[in-house]
Structure formats: structure tokens, C-alpha cells
Amino acid sequence: EFILLNLMILVRLMGIFDILAGVVLVLTLGDIPFRLVLGHSLYLILKGYIFKGDLLSMIDLVIGMYGIFAILFPIPFISIFTGGYLAIKGIISLF
What we know:
The protein is mainly alpha-helical. The protein has 4 helices and no strands. The relative contact order is 0.21.
């Protein structure tokens, strides 16, 4: 029971981080601190690498790499689409 509870807390915590990463990706279209975008992108890359056997985690890895690219050259459609994807995925993991 203790391990299951910790696992549920970890999944919800990563869901909250996914929501925040999605918001940060959308905000790359405006003026947002470099370190904030870099930190969330590295989180997504690390999470994608740790859970590399899963398709959704590989998508996280690619989105994390795009986040680093978006620091200098954000593409509005891709930033909004990936930000929405991460936010929806994060919201679903909270339930």
C-alpha cells in the first residue's frame, strides 16, 4: 500500500509538472525567462529518457528537444499544440 501511494503521488506530481511545462511552451511565444524554458525542457527530456520504452515518454522527449529549440525560434502552431498536449496529458494524470 505504501509503494502504491508513493507511485500515485509521483504520477500526480509529474502531471502537475507536465501542465506547467505546457504553459511554459505556450509562453515561449512571448517574453519568458530562458532558464524557465530550459528547465522544463530538460525535465521533459529526462522523463522521456527514463521511461524510454513508452511511446508517450518518447513524445515528451521530442517535445523537450523542441522546447530547447523554441527558446530562440518558437513556432506558434507547434508551441500551442505541444503545450496543449502536455496540459491535457497532465490533467488526465491527475485523475
